[in-house]
Design brief:
7 helices, four-stranded mixed sheet, UDP-n-acetylglucosamine1-carboxyvinyl-transferase, Chain, single chain, 28% helix, 244 residues
Length: 244
């Protein structure tokens, strides 16, 4: 039901201002579809790709950035279908079954795709990956995630001392760490937690303040063992995990 409106017209010597407002006592009713969240869309595609079995995603944001994630993980072996519909299906390959692609993984303009994917790729032994992005993304520093990954034993090379894409990653068997992040960043935290999925033991991230918790919630939903300590702003994942 669309309410009646009250129209007020104010005129001066130079212009006329028309103000419309709903009539008092009437209400607006209807249904709207809110666009999907970009951060959750990225994580849905990535976790679906490394989980065992089929993941169905409803309300995926069909923007360029999530499409970059979908394209990259398709090259890594996941079957992502119906990307132009409201329901997207991801046939995952399992956590340790990503393939080594012959092509460069192009993240487009998506920093989230690159930063989160680095944690996954770095933890896949005996596989080599190359990632890049558009002219803007290759100027954005990746050191904030490469530094903790290197502490875990990752081998990553890039421009400017390894901080800028294009990046080359030689997958390794990583070791767990307790990383004290100098900033509260959901991307940094997620990258380390994703790397910890393939790591034997407990991988912990402590932040100055807890950042957005999309990854923790979704990892738990996929079956990962996650613990959160709000008193110390710490999140821990126990690996190796089995996502499904």
């Amino acid at each position: 039901m669309i309410p009646a409106v009250v129209t007020t017209q104010i005129t001066n010597s130079q212009e006329t201002l028309i103000i419309q407002r709903p009539q008092s006592g009437l209400c607006l009713k209807g249904n709207i579809q809110i666009p999907g969240d970009k951060s959750i869309s990225h994580r849905s595609l990535m976790l679906g790709a490394i989980a065992q079995g089929k993941t169905t995603i409803k309300g995926l944001l069909l923007g360029e950035d999530p499409r970059s994630s979908a394209k990259c993980f398709s090259l890594l072996g996941a079957d992502i279908s119906q990307l132009n519909t409201d329901l997207v299906e991801v046939q995952g390959v399992g956590l340790d079954n990503l393939i080594e692609p012959s092509q460069v993984l192009d993240c487009g303009n998506s920093g989230t795709t690159m930063r989160l994917m680095l944690g996954i790729l770095a933890s896949h032994p005996e596989r080599f990956f190359t990632v890049t992005g558009d002219s803007s993304l290759v100027q954005r520093p990746m050191s904030r995630v490469i530094e903790p990954l290197t502490q875990m034993g990752a081998q990553i090379w890039g421009r400017k001392g390894g901080s800028l894409a294009p990046l080359a990653i030689q997958g390794q068997k990583l070791r767990p760490i307790h990383y004290h992040s100098p900033i509260a960043s959901a991307q940094v935290k997620s990258c380390i937690l994703f790397a910890g999925l393939m790591t034997e033991g407990k991988t912990t991230v402590t932040e100055p303040a807890l950042s957005r918790d999309h990854s923790e919630r979704m990892l738990e939903a996929f079956g990962a063992q996650i613990s959160i300590d709000p008193e110390t702003n710490s999140v821990t994942v126990t690996g190796p995990a089995k996502l499904q």
